[in-house]
Structure formats: C-alpha cells, structure tokens
Specification:
This is DUF885 domain-containing protein. It holds the Pfam family DUF885. The chain contains 23 helices and 5 strands. It is mainly alpha-helical. The chain has a 3-stranded mixed beta sheet. Strands 1-5 form a two-stranded antiparallel sheet. Helix 1 packs antiparallel against helix 3. The two termini are 46 Å apart.
Amino acid sequence: MSQTKSLLPREVADAYVDELIALDPITGTYLGVKESSSRLPDLSPEGQEALAELSRGTLARLDEAERLPGADSDIERRCARLLRERLTAALAVHEADEGLRTVGNLGTPVHSVREVFTVMPTGTDEDWAAVAERLRAVPATLSGYRDSLALGLERKLYAGPRPTATLVEQLTEWADGDGSGRGWFEDFAAAGPESLRSELDEAGRAATAAVVELRDWMRDVYAPTVEGAPNTVGRERYARWSRYYNGTDLDLDEAYAYGWSEFHRILAEMRQEAERILPGAETPWVALAHLDEHGRHIEGVDEVRQWLQELMDQAIEALDGTHFELAERVREVESCIAPPGSAAAPYYTPPSEDFSRPGRTWLPTMGQTRFPVYDLVSTWYHEGVPGHHLQLAQWTHVAGDLSRYQATIGGVSANAEGWALYAERLMDELGFLTDPEQRLGYLDAQMMRAARVIVDIGMHLELEIPADSPFHPGERWTPELAQEFFGAHSSRPADFVESEMTRYLTIPGQAIGYKLGERAWLLGRDNARERHGDAFDLKAWHMAALSQGSLGLDDLVEELSRL
C-alpha cells in the first residue's frame, strides 16, 4: 500500500499556490501560467466559499507539516509563519462576509477582471485566441460578482454609498469612455490580429454588454438600497481589515498618534524646503502650487513615459554594485501608461515567474498631458527602483530558495508598501534628492503617507482630532473633514484627492501600511546596525532583507534585526 508523502511547510505552501491557481486563474496569469490565460474566476458566493475551503484545508495540512523533522529550520519556519498568518487573516475577512460588499474604486474583483487583460501576453495568434476566450468568460464572472453583492443586500451587508457611486462611474467609462460607442474591452480586442477579428469583436461586445448590465444593476438596484448606509466601517471591521493588510494586530490608537507625530515632523521639514523655492510662502503647498506653474515639467504622455523609464534606468546604474547586487533579469523594468478608467494613483505590476513579462510601473494620466517633475521622482523611486520593483522582482528571482508562495502571492501589503516608502527615504539619505523641487516633492509624498494614517484610522474609528492640530482641533473625524484635511496638506489635484479618499473608504486599513511598514523597516535596519556595529554592511543587509520573502509586520522587525 502506497503512503502519502508528508509535506514540509514550504511544500504545503506551494501546493496551496497550485490549488489556488486552479480556482483563481487571474492569479495564474500574474504568475505567468499559460493555462490560466483563457479563464476567469468564479466570483459568486460559492466561488468565495471554495477559496475559503482551500484555506481551511491548507491550515490543517500546515498543522501536520509543522510537527515534522526539519520544520523548525529558519526557512521552513518563516514560510509556515507567513502562510498561517495570511490564511487566518483571509478567513477572518471571509467569515465576516466582507466579500459580499466589496465595492469601490480599486482593488475589487471587478477591477481585477479588467486589469488582468493588461498583463496578458499578446504576441501571437495563440495569445489572442486566449484573450478572446477570456473575454467570453467576462459575462459569467461579472454575474457571479453581482450574485455576491445581491446576497450582501439580502443580509443587509452594505457597501458605502460613495464607493458605490464611484464604481458606477467607472463602469460607465469602461462601457464607453470616449463616446465612440465602444467599450474598453472592445478597444482592447481591436489590437488583435485580423485572422481573429470576428471572434475578438464578438467577445469584446459581449464583455462590454456585461459591463453595461452590471453598471445598470449597480445604479438602479444596488445604489438606491445602500443609500444612507455609512461610508466608514467602525473599529471592529477596521481591525479585521487592518490585520489583513498589515499582518499584525495594531494598537490603532498608538498608530493614530504616530501619524500625528510624523505629520508635525514632516511639516517642519517642508517649511524649510519651501523657503528655498519660494521665500515667504505662506505654506509649503503654496510653494508646490508655484512649482505646478513654474517648476520643471514634462510635456506629452509618451514623453513622460520615456522620462520615467530613463529615471529608473539611471537609478539601477547608480545603485547596482554600490547599495544592491542585482541579477540581470531584475535590472529590467518597463514604464507604462495606465489604461483609462483607472484610479488616480500610480501602481506597479510584478514580473511573471519566468520573467518573460517584466515588472512594470503604471502612470494614470487622468487626461493630463503636462506633468510636473517634483511629484514624479520620489514616486518612481517608490513604484520602480529601488522600491516595489527591486523587492518584488528579487522575490521572484530567489523563489527557488524560498517557496513559490513566499515569492509571489503571500505578500503582505504593509511589508511591500513599507519597503517602497523606505526606498524613497533611502534615496534621500543617499543624496539623490538634493534638488529643492524634488526634495519638496519627496516630503510632500511623505506627508501624504502620514496623512493617510491620520485620516484612515481617524474617520473609520471617528476619533477626536487632537488639540495641537492646525485643523479643526477637538472635532471628530468624518469623511468630509478627512477629504478637506487631505486636500489642504497635499499638492495633489482635487480629482486625485477625491479618488484617494474613496480608496480609503474602499479598502480600510491598507493605506496606513505605507508609514507603519516604513517604521518597521527602519527599526529593523537600526537594530541590525546596532548589532553589527562598524561591521554593518548596508548592501549585504539590503540583499538579505529583499531575499527573505514577505512577512507581516508582526515578524518583519524581528527577522530584519537578525540579518
């Protein structure tokens, strides 16, 4: 009689990845799995429960794996700790039925359905045949998403009215954003080969019709039902989501106080830098508004894409061999323009597992053709190099030494966003931001991340604004006050501010991970430097830190301090 081989934690984690890809082909596409290209996931309540069952079964197998000889090695221990924390956090979200009210302006299942097409291979007729098949799957997938939301309505689990209204607007743009009578999916399909023209056009029209159907239901049924529901989530739901995005049970009141301390520190630095640009400016944002008109800028969409590419290429040349040791395939990263109808914030997509698709940064233009430089430089240090790209591409590069799970889907948002914010600060420490325009832009970006901690926690928990605040001291936060505060302490235009606030209402607890994750990375580095003294090697520490895979903030400081 044959016996089933016992699996160590890394093997359990990798088996989970294989099973997850079977249920979620979008994840498969991001990993570069060819067999996933023609399918989409089941977004219905039944599909969500299947994912939960996979998590429960994996946790049971992990219990067995952790009892095996060899399971206590550092590499097995890290993987087991990450897998247990991630699956437990995801199950807590699922069991609270959060998946029945996932509505907003980004990060929802319906956004994933559209965005996966932007990373699909399209170099051959075979690739485009897979595109056509996946387009034909859009109606059933969006129908499953609607079934989940409808069940949420039955159970009186409502999304906020503001995120709902924003999603309706986005779906309208996806259905016919430029008034041409064709939707986004049809435009995407139009780039395919003539040999598949009829098939692609038909599939594109079917996908657009499904978008219109979902939009109409959201507008005519869902939105009226949730009208009057709160846009914020309260302390209990916020704590659950915070755990999911940060990998730790935060002391939310301490985190809120930390956000305010960083606000005051950064504001003092901004005032000094603003004086160099516009002496006598009433606030730093007056100086930044001056730069919007009179500072250095790039004209043209393709021109800014190329400029951002050159910025990343230059950073790689300057940092490789001095502060990092980069494999050749990690050195490749592409600058791209985000498709219309995206949220306002730039973003990054990691490489496929075999690097056949490189890591890519994405700039939403929001209809603009003129781009001030001051708010792009540190942002691309964050999104590209040495930020998201170096970390996520390095994880992919060393996947064989970790586990497939650690290198890909096991990522903790606050770990990655914390590294990217650390990367911005590193470039300032290394002297890359001595230009007053660029340094004030960097500090403005830092202020945005501190403000996120304040308003995200503040408005969802309805906390009191402290007495030493320059803004409405003693009052309680509301989304309206949060938007006013954010707009007054940011150089971003009004449409960006509005999109950001909707984002915080959509994915509570995620935006705080930038600043709190940066704090964890800095503390880990300080501890390692103190431990090694004069022998501390920053380049070696960077590469060891980037090669250990993801960890929640619970574990990140401990592991970084050991390096």
